[in-house]
Design goal:
The protein is α/β, with parallel strands linked by helices and about 400 residues long. The chain folds into 2 domains: about 140 residues, Aspartate Aminotransferase, domain 1 (Alpha-Beta Complex), CATH 3.90.1150; about 220 residues, Aspartate Aminotransferase, domain 2, CATH 3.40.640. It is about 40% helix and about 10% strand. A 7-stranded mixed β-sheet has the order 2-8-7-6-5-3-4, with helices on both faces.
């Protein structure tokens, strides 16, 4: 007999994926170049040439068994050492390779981190707006995801609500900065206050409360934005990273968990993750990709197009009357819809071939997400569609 809970999940398919599929189908009708598809957060810039050159060189020169054989369950030791060294150099940390566990992207990193620190019946807090896949990530561990309401004034943290919800049942707090969908970056003051409250609660309750920091957009930060490294400010922290956005490698599924050397049982986290892999199947990421990213840890794709696209859209949308907190990074924007029902708003936008994601799926009502990781030329062409949409539907 099949498992009912997964059958039930079929009724709650990702709204983002559904919209992306609609955009693809619409593109077959009118040409995809005429569909302004702002649905899916798929990087739009090429991977660095140095990464491609590294792949070619390794394929030509290295032993095929080294490139294509299984890696150790924790990841290739030399790669883990290089990741640790890079983090230490950039953020003033004291990681060793023993604190790094290589994963299949940030999703795999979060899946392992959660299982390291949260058990069935525990609560995990996150902050709205949040990536909707956090719900299955957490709930399928047997833990329960609780969402702290958004501070819509600036999309930092609603600390009053957080303090109330950080009860004795909470085993972990899951943050995402830079944030999908708001594009906001938690400031140093925000992270310090978060850490202070969590430290106080740990002492009060007499048990660890871990900070799990989801950081796939760490490198996409705009000029002048304060960008703290959360693990620098809180000892019981697990940093979850992916190279999907920084190197434009989402299809390669490579990332890591970095356990703060000061956290409880820091030297056991990676080996615990290797045991978790036995049950989740997120084990042994591709050897060749591990080896390749280790050679380009200090590089990124040319990410400047995302800030350029943001500036174009922010200027136009605010001129049209949209309220929007200016993003500090990522390739997302989270304006307020022109009516309370965000789903209805986005449905109307489809008539103008504008594919926008309603905010309900992110835990906030009345907003919509724009994933502006598309060609700048297409962003500029979409502006007239936005103008026409606003003029005809809302008479603005």
């Amino acid at each position: 007999m099949i498992v009912q809970k997964y059958k039930d999940m079929l009724q709650g398919k990702s709204v983002i994926r559904q919209l992306s599929e609609f955009a693809t189908a619409r593109g077959k009708e009118i040409g995809y170049e005429n569909v302004f598809d702002y649905s899916l957060g798929n990087p739009s810039v090429p991977t660095p040439q140095a990464f491609t050159d590294t792949m070619i060189r390794m394929l030509q020169e290295k032993d095929p068994m080294e490139l294509h054989g299984y890696s150790q369950s924790l990841g290739i030791p030399s790669v883990r050492d290089k990741v640790a060294d890079s983090l230490n150099k950039r953020f003033g940390m004291n990681y060793t390779g023993n604190h790094i566990f290589m994963t299949t992207g940030a999703a795999g990193a979060i899946a392992h981190a959660l299982r390291c620190v949260a058990q069935p019946g525990d609560e995990v807090l996150t902050f709205a707006p949040y990536f909707p896949e956090y719900a299955p990530y957490v709930n399928l561990t047997g833990s329960v995801l609780k969402v702290v309401p958004a501070d819509t004034e600036n999309f930092q943290i609603n600390f009053e609500a957080f303090d109330e919800m950080l009860t004795e049942k909470v085993a972990a707090v899951l943050i995402n900065t830079p944030n999908n969908p708001s594009g906001m970056v938690y400031s140093t003051d925000t992270i310090k206050k978060l850490a202070q409250i969590m430290e106080q609660k740990q002492k009060q309750y007499g048990h660890d409360i871990f900070l799990i920091s989801d950081e796939p957009y760490r490198e996409i930060v705009f000029a002048g934005v304060d960008t703290p490294y959360p693990s620098k400010f809180y000892d019981n922290s697990l940093s979850c990273y992916s190279f999907s956005k920084s190197l434009s490698l989402p299809g390669e599924r490579i990332g890591y968990v970095a356990a703060n050397p000061k956290c409880t049982d820091a030297d056991l986290i990676s080996v615990m993750c290797s045991q978790i892999s036995r049950g989740t199947g997120h084990n042994c990421p591709p050897s060749i990709i591990q080896l390749a990213v280790a050679q380009v840890l200090e590089l990124t794709s040319d990410l400047s197009v995302y800030e350029k696209n943001m500036n174009i859209l922010y200027k136009e949308l605010t001129a049209l009357g949209f309220e929007c907190v200016r993003p500090g990074g990522t390739f997302y924007m989270f304006p307020k819809a022109l009516e309370e029902d965000a789903a209805a708003f986005c449905e109307k936008a489809k008539k103008y071939d504008l594919i926008l994601v309603p905010s309900d799926t992110f835990g906030v009502k009345g907003y919509f997400r724009i994933a502006y990781c598309i060609d700048t030329e297409k962003v500029e062409r979409s502006l007239e569609a936005f103008r026409k949409f606003v003029r005809e539907m809302y008479h603005l």
